[in-house]
Design a protein that fits this description.
Serine Threonine Protein Phosphatase 5, Tetratricopeptide repeat; Rossmann fold; mainly alpha; 674 residues; 6 strands; Arc Repressor Mutant, subunit A; 66% helix
């Protein structure tokens, strides 16, 4: 934390200098300050809020007041003159702001102790505490005064119930200069049909609102629905108003949209409400109805989107180009149904199933481009880099029709497939400036993890879990735990790793990967009894998943290899190959173990050659052979082969492969230099 303070103070000093340079300009505001610093106003707002807990407008006003105090202490000048010099257009308003900030009017500065005032001025802005306002004078009410107050109370209550008052609340949010957060809930489906209309409306409206303006932060369905699930909801079609309010508050959303779907005769009727999360007051109600036939869905979605969006537009939100709607939504209920099933499978890490559903969604509507993003990610996670590249390129080709948030996902998909983790990290950081979602923190941590930068990976992965903890929700997948657990392990933080497993067991009991990691930890700590318990559990889960005995044996060998126990690993790899002699996976695993540990480089090379007879283009076998050539001192041959494999990048970016390549290149350069 101590390392961050100087950077924060430098940031605050830069802001202060820009404001002081424009002190006399009463029109200098939020956009001008952001422009002067060269960042977006929302990035500025997020950073400033994190450091000082102040809004941008509040910071500008307080900087003006601090300069005013300096002038009043050091110069022979009147309060009215100072007001104009520090950018206030009205001395009366200046007096009010000054009094609220310091607790006394500017006219009293000369009569107070100069030393006290100077101490007040010299406090670092980032360390300023919220000042206590002076106690209000007590007021003795007359009978007539009380009558007036009663009348005023009645008027206020009436206004609370009126749309005018609620519109005022929305306008206050907008005029505050802060980003408004809105959460769209899945609508309550009272029709009880098989089509998930409630979630379809949620996705469509979320996508639509995301394109309106940067002032509006729209929470993503994954976050909203994750919290609803943690509330005990098993069917999104049965969301209750109390669940909606609870979820919106956990997300810190200012506003949430919630509604019902009912059948009335031959039409579907949709009721929607825009609600203030804090007060529970309904800001605006909407009603739309349409045909029960599937072709009526587009009309319904379009009407709901425009009614909600136009109301926000009338409330002074600046609307941008929303052509992206054409690539992120569909008018096919069938396409939506397949898409939702695909996302269910994707977040359950059943990537083959997810690919199948997403392809069906695109078959139902070839223009449903947002599905391509998940198809690329599903194929990438499933190990098919060629398919991932194909869908990444198709999704990327629609980039210009998307809003900023979705363009960043198109950029990220492209970087994730074609570039290095460093390019992906830069995009993920930009995504976090728009929306701090746990999956983005997890992805950022995973990228640092892939670069073996565990000190950077761990804080990001912790942030993702902390958000879920705050929401009272479990993570979308076990990988939120697995990356962090492995990062702890690789950095020697075994106690933290063990503690994390206890948490992961509650959310993802009997998970095969996490069970394996616990076995590796026990083996590393030489706790044989605990290790055997987890290995047996690991074997049992694999058997339950219909794994062959050869694969189970080879996988157990992998646990020993990860625990740096090569004798045991070699024994299990050889046993797996005895049962399945032509298995390329175990042949490669044994070859690499023998070569990398120096146990038997010649045999390792022979095994790699055997794989290349079975599959002449097996990239992993070629990499193993190249590493073997290096171990045998044939540096130039090794470099040529490893460079060829690197250029192919058949399986995407591999940091260990890069480290091998760099080590061999360095050896060749040193030899040539001599």
């Amino acid at each position: 934390m101590s390392d961050l303070l100087p950077k924060n103070q430098v940031f605050i000093n830069m802001l202060t200098e820009i404001i002081v340079a424009n002190l006399r300009n009463e029109n200098f505001g939020v956009n001008d300050l952001a422009r002067g610093l060269g960042i977006s106003r929302y990035r500025l707002s997020l950073r400033l809020q994190a450091i000082t807990n102040k809004t941008i407008n509040q910071f500008i006003r307080e900087t003006r007041l601090r300069k005013a105090m300096e002038m009043l202490i050091n110069e022979e000048v009147s309060a009215s003159d100072v007001a104009y010099k520090v950018g206030f257009s009205s001395p009366a308003y200046f007096n009010t702001c000054f009094h609220e900030f310091y607790g006394f009017p500017p006219g009293k500065v000369k009569t107070l102790g100069t030393k006290i005032l100077e101490e007040e001025v010299q406090k670092p802005i980032s360390a300023l505490e919220k000042r206590k306002r002076p106690a209000r004078r007590s007021v003795i009410f007359t009978l007539s005064g009380i009558s007036i107050l009663v009348v005023l109370a009645v008027i206020v209550i009436s206004l609370v119930r009126s749309k005018i008052y609620n519109r005022s609340n929305l306008e206050k949010l907008i005029s505050s200069g802060e980003r408004i957060s809105i959460a769209v809930m899945p609508f309550q489906n009272l029709i009880n049909d098989s089509i998930r209309y409630g979630e379809i409306i949620q996705i469509s409206l979320t996508s639509f609102l995301s394109g309106y303006t940067e002032e509006l932060k729209v929470e993503q369905p994954e976050s909203v629905n994750g919290i609803l699930t943690s509330e005990g909801l098993t069917n999104y079609a049965s969301v209750t108003p109390s669940m909606a309010i609870s979820a919106a508050r956990k997300l810190n959303a200012n506003i949430f949209v919630f509604g019902d779907i009912i059948k009335s005769g031959n039409v579907r009727r949709f009721y929607a409400q825009l609600t203030d999360t804090k007060t529970k007051e309904v800001i605006k109600s909407f009603q739309v109805e349409g045909s029960l036939k599937e072709e009526g869905l587009l009309q319904i979605l379009d009407s709901i989107n425009k009614k909600v969006g136009n109301y926000l537009l009338i409330s002074k939100l600046k609307r941008k180009n929303i052509e992206f709607e054409k690539v992120t939504t569909t008018n096919s209920a069938q396409a939506y149904t397949y898409y939702l099933k695909g996302k269910d499978a994707y977040y359950s890490m059943r990537y083959s199933d997810a690919i199948n559903w997403f392809q069906k969604a695109l078959t139902a509507d070839t223009n449903f481009t947002w599905t391509m993003r998940f198809l690329a990610a599903s194929n990438n996670n499933n190990g098919d880099i060629n398919e991932a590249r194909k869908w990444s390129l198709k999704f990327y080709s629609k980039k210009e029709m998307m809003n900023e948030y979705q363009r960043l996902y198109a950029d990220y998909g492209y970087a994730n497939t074609f570039l290095t983790p460093n390019e992906s990290i830069a995009i993920l950081k930009r995504l976090l400036l728009i929306d701090e979602q746990p999956p983005v923190y997890r992805s950022l941590g995973a990228k640092y993890f892939n670069l073996q930068q565990y000190d950077k990976a761990i804080p990001e992965l912790i942030k993702a879990l902390d958000i879920y903890k705050k929401w009272g929700s479990k993570p979308l997948g076990y990988d939120f735990y697995s990356f962090l657990a492995t990062a702890y392990h690789e950095s020697g933080q075994y106690k933290k790793e063990k503690k994390l497993y206890r948490k992961s067991e509650r959310d993802f009991p009997d998970n095969i990967y996490m069970t394996g990691r616990q076995a590796i930890l026990a083996l590393t700590e030489k706790d044989t009894v605990t290790a055997n318990k987890f290995i047996e559990k690991y074997r049992s889960i694999l058997k339950g998943n219909s794994a062959t005995e050869a694969n189970i044996t080879g996988d157990v060998g992998g646990l020993y290899r990860e625990a740096n126990l090569p004798d045991k690993a070699e024994k299990y790899f050889r046993e797996a190959l005895r049962m399945d002699p032509q298995n390329i996976l175990w042949l490669n695993n044994l070859a690499y173990l023998l070569i990398n540990t120096g146990r038997n480089i010649s045999e390792g090379m022979d095994i790699a050659e055997k794989v290349l007879v079975i599959d002449t283009a097996n990239i992993r076998a070629l990499r193993i052979k190249g590493w073997g050539l290096y171990k045998l001192g044939k540096n130039q041959e090794a470099l040529d082969l490893l460079q060829k494999c690197w250029n192919t990048k058949l399986y995407g970016y591999n940091h260990s492969e890069l480290l091998h390549l760099e080590e061999v290149r360095k050896a060749v350069e040193e030899h040539n230099f001599r």
